[in-house]
Target: DUF3562 domain-containing protein
Amino acid sequence: MSQPEPNVDEVVKSIAEETDTPTETVSRMYADTLADYRHEARVFDYVPLFAAKKVRNQLLHSPNRKH
Model:
């Protein structure tokens, strides 16, 4: 049984608020990461979750991040 697809707008908004990053930037990063994961995946159930986690971590650990 596959997992329900998360609401992309909510995911992007959440990451943007948490990382103090413009939603346009997060949206682009999320879409790119999701596409990369989907290209390589054999099982797609958790791909959106993994993509969100990767984008969030990249933004939180970015050397350009303002604290």
